[in-house]
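The record is kept unedited without comment:

——
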Amino acid sequence: MPPQSLAPEQAIYYHECLISLGSNIEPNLNFAKALNIIGHECNLLATSKPIRTAPVGYQQQPDYLNAALLVSTPLEQEAFRAYLKEVENRLGRVRGAIKSGPRTMDLDMVAWDGKLLDESYYQYDYVRTPVNEVLAISGRSLEK
């Protein structure tokens, strides 16, 4: 019997999300954990090399390790945003009084299906440099 294809209403549509990662609490360990989790729970399409950057805002903390990932997911945008916050929590993220303070992992959506969501792409090299590397690797581009 030949394989049956899904009816259009049963087909799963995958979205692409560009994610900015940042950590300055055991960053090498937390990067490995984040990549393991996201790589097992999403379709990992491309990753940048991590870069070390000085903190922005609150200065009394260690340097950050920053990178970017491109993933595909069947989740809708808000569900995926909630998923990223849940991954941060699984990695021990504590949200303190200092918004730009130290963190085990920060996962931010930069683009969704090629459309730029986060203006920090224009403001900060620690976002733009890894994102541009992922775009070059994957052959993708961003819509403003």
